[in-house]
Amino acid sequence: MTTPARAVPGARAGTTRRPPGYRELFLQLDLVRLVRRGFQDMRTRGRLIQYLVGTDLKRTHADTVMGQVWWLIDPFFQMAIYSILVTVVFAKKIPDAPLFLFAAILPWQWFQTSLVDATTSVTARGNLIRQIQFPKLVLPAASTLAGAVTFGFGLVSLLLLYIPYPSHLSPWLLTLPVIAAVQYVFTLALAVFFAGVNAFYRDVQNLLRHITRIWFYASPAIYAVSALKGSVFGYVLAVNPFTYILTSYRNIAYYGSPPDWVGLFSVLVVSLVLLSLSIWLFKRVETGFAKIL
Amino acid sequence: MAPPAAIDVEDLGIRYNLHLTRRTTLKGSLMEWVGRRQREDHYFWALRHVTFRVAHGEALGILGPNGAGKSTLLLTLAGILAPDEGSIRVQGRVSSLLTLGAGFEMEVSGRENIALIGAFMGIRHRVMRELTPSIIEFADIGPFIDAPVRTYSSGMRARLGFSIATAIAPDILLLDEVLGTGDEEFRARSQQRIRELVARARAIVLVTHDLNSVAEYCSRSVLMEKGSILYEGPTLETVEFYKDRVRKRKARLAEEQAAREAAGLPAPVTLDEIAPSGQPG
To answer: Which of B21, B81, B121, B123 to substitute to test the interface with A, most A CBs within 10 Å?
Structure first.
């Protein structure tokens, strides 16, 4: 096992230094190797990730009377609150509002809790990081996967909602795993980034609460995209990945139409680029975790 | 050149960024970054210019006062910290017995924790499954093994931690003074197990304050101070050098104090008194 120190640029005083070219600068970033190593970390430590997901799921609601049933109850309460807010307080006339809202709020909840949990996943394991050497990338990966499993349970409550609104059920609902996969890649990209940065700056976990709240209202979760057409906010929606993700969910679950394939594909491409960049950043700073936690 | 060493440390340096600690805030960092103040005094070198080798079959003792960098060195040998300068080459599987119960997942059972920590340590699933019965037997915590770890006493946690950490005999054993936990009976068993590991390890690094027992395990020792190696040689010589150094230092301090008292000044408070004796601390 060899662990050479990373070359410190400019460390060799005395030799004449000439400004490095773009090629050299790029090579110094070590982008390709680190990203490949990152993916390798997650693949070879599958078993560890699996155990972590298991303990994560066990920990939430571990000492509650109703235990796992909360996974069904939590999203229902959310949906009920927003249904009342939208239809009674704002007096919007949305047919079958509960299903309209639930189709978007459920995936949004998944995104938000995953991101918040994953952000603290590294700092929460400070003890272990100072005692065992392991690829830290498994922590945000497991955290977001646990969120995905919870989302899977939440889907049961979505299916239950078709009992009062059977007319919305369509075969397009079967494309849900595709949309969820795109959303997962996007979530993982952000989760890895925030988990890495939060180890150094705990401000991130506080900041994130506000970011996600603003993001929620800037996404078509409790309103339709058409509601903002032509206004300035229309541009915000256009660059917000969740516009395409939530629209796709709502299409298949509420309107019975196909998902926004083009939008989803664009989000996937952007997410993969973001994921590579955040894995690179994470791998760069990973060696420092043991020193500061 | 000597035959390939089990551990080969060359010009090792570990550096801590004093401005990037637990309490760093974004605001502070941003202001620093905007001010572009990247000076050398932001760093503290916990280790610097450390070079040594441990041959196959050798046990090396590491002595030194608190804050000398002994634990940092062990963390680096274990691969937990990466060198900022120089290099470390280690041949074979390293295990530090630092893993005494920290990192347990409180809400799940002891049995599940065995699997989880095994996976963290990178031990193959099948190997871990075979080892589990003997780990449980050694920890000897009875039916608690299937109860959540949060219900354990601290002694039970330590026993389970020790049992997991020592389940696999490493090629290179790093010991940080953990030579026994728990009650008399368990301590005797754990001493026995450490002796087994010591006998099977290809190389050992032992960090200790116990100047009496270090000679029992290690033929050669180094003395560290302020992040560097001060003396290297046969253990008895190193211990002698260390004791001598402490004696001189104490004498000098006493002298200084006498001079101060003579001049009518109050006695200074010394926080960095070094205390090598039979007991740790």
So the answer is: B81
Q: Is A47 on the interface with B (CB under 8 A)?
A: yes
Judge: A131–B89 Cβ closer than 8 Å, yes or no.
Answer: no
Q: Tell whether A66 lies on the interface with B, counting CB pairs under 8 A.
A: no
Contacts of B108 in chain A (CB under 8 A): 54-55, 58-59
- Name chain A contacts of B16, Cβ cutoff 8 Å: 291
Domain range for A212 is 46-292
pLDDT, residue B37, reads 52
Using a CB–CB cutoff of 8 Å, tell me whether B151 touches chain A: no
Give the pLDDT confidence score for residue A13 in this predicted structure. 44
User: How many Å lie between the alpha carbon of B93 and the closest alpha carbon of chain A?
Assistant: 9
- Decide if A14 is inside a domain: no
B4, B86: one domain: yes
Size of interface A-B (CB pairs under 8 A): 107
**Within a domain: A36:** no
SS3 annotation, chain B? CCCCCCEEEEEEEEEEECCCCCCCCHHHHHHHHHHCCCCHHHEEEEEEEEEEEECCCEEEEEECCCCCCHHHHHHHHCCCCCCCEEEEEECCCEEECCCCCCCCCCCCEHHHHHHHHHHHCCCCHHHHHHHHHHHHHHHCCHHHHHCEHHHCCHHHHHHHHHHHHCCCCCCEEEEECCCCCCCHHHHHHHHHHHHHHHHHCCEEEEECCCCCCHHHHCCEEEEEECCEEEEEEEHHHHHHHHHHHHHHHHHHHHHHHHHHHHHCCCCCCCCCCCCCCCCCC
Measured CA distances, B177 to B50, B78, B164, B247, B258 (Å): 21, 15, 18, 24, 36
For an interface test with B, the pick among A43, A47, A56 (most B C-beta atoms closer than 10 Å) comes out as A47
pLDDT of residue B30: 66
A72-123 pLDDT, tens per residue?
787 788 888 888 888 888 877 888 888 999 999 999 999 999 999 999 999 9
The domain containing residue B53 runs over which residues? 1-30+39-91+221-260
- The domain tally of chain B equals 2
**The predicted structure's pLDDT at residue A22:** 75
Determine the distance in angstroms separating the CA of B41 from the nearest CA of chain A, rounded to an integer. 16
Contact B27/A at CB under 8 A: yes
At A179-219, the pLDDT tens digits run 999 999 999 999 999 999 999 888 898 999 999 999 999 99
Residue B160 lies in a domain: yes
Structurally, chain A folds into a number of domains equal to 1
More confident site: B106 or A182: A182
**CA-based nearest residue in chain A for residue B80:** A133
Is B16 inside any structural domain? yes
- pLDDT at residue A12 greater than cutoff 60: no
Q: Is there a domain that residue B46 lies in?
A: yes
In terms of domains, do B116 and B162 share one? Answer: yes
